[in-house]
Amino acid sequence: MAKITLASVLLPLFKRNLFLGKLHSFMYYAWDSRLKKVIPSSPINSRCTRIHVSVSISYVILQILLIRTSPIALSDKVFPATLTWMYIACTVIGVEWCADTASIQLMNLIYKTEESEELASGAWQSIIFQKIIQLTYFLMDLSCHFVFPPAMAFLLMLLPCQLPFLGSVILPGCEFTRSPFPSHVYLNLVVKVVLILFEFSQIFRNLITGMHYGMYIVIAGILHLWEASSKIVGSPGFSKNYRQLQVLEAVVNGALRDKLFPSFLVLCPFMQIMATYASVKFHDGMPATYLIFVVLLSVEGVILNGLYSTAAAVIYRKSDAYLKAAKGVVLIKLDKKVLKSYTPLRVRFGSNFMDRLTPLVLQEFIAMQTINLLLLT
Description:
The chain is mostly helical. It has one domain. It is built from 12 helices and 4 strands. It has a two-stranded antiparallel sheet. A two-stranded antiparallel sheet has the order 3-4. A hairpin with a 4-residue loop joins strand 1 (29-32) and strand 2. The protein is globular.
């Protein structure tokens, strides 16, 4: 069986996401087919991306205000609030005003096409684990590119006045409308078409940027460090190649620790909390289409939170165990000095890092907050 690597699994999906982002001027990054690496997008694309970012920020603020000021019942606000949180998550994690060189460096390490002679060990040798990674990314790609955007456009055709969309305050005939347009059939039809195209563009842009930063930089960066570290810490004996892992650790943390990973650690767990709360508390009074959406969002939250936290915890645990075991086999004085300079690999967020208990602590926090919401409302 051919060797499967993280890059071989993710590269086709990653390139398609970049292509769609470049095609619609949604991102600051592009794939250079000649150099086979990520490069900053053109100045024109970058200017258009800044406009899209500004529009997304403004629209998220408007959605929050619409939900807050709406007099509808709390149960009717659950779906709009959950959807808006997804918009907020994708918008916040994708807020940049230019291409980040640290992110480009990390992406080019993750998606380099050169074959490595070393084989990853541990979970990376398991066919089941490889299939889980493939399936997770395939389903996320499928839902973000081909399911959610058309489904949202179809929803707007059926329910053009649905909060938190713009049509709820623009279209004549909506309960809370402040429409400047007269009740004219043809004009209303044109306005509906324009609004559907706008909403489709917004959710498509949010999902593409959310996939790029969340799946293809944050989670892929952590998985790449796990895969690379397993080639060394999974083998017996002492290797001076551990220094290369420390360099890779610095690249990963340089791209993630200040903005991307802290944002992800706040937004993704709270998305799971909100979606789980909504699906449990209001499942009996929620339309089937809304319920399917929030359940899928909750499941995606469980998968993503479990994936990145477990990967980061395994990286720390395995590297720590490797260094402790190496102390018993290193006899040369120079090698002992080198070993003392090595530290366990850590995926950092701000001044903290993900340790071996982080997955349990994270899921306990999510479960407790969800239970508290259910008990208090």
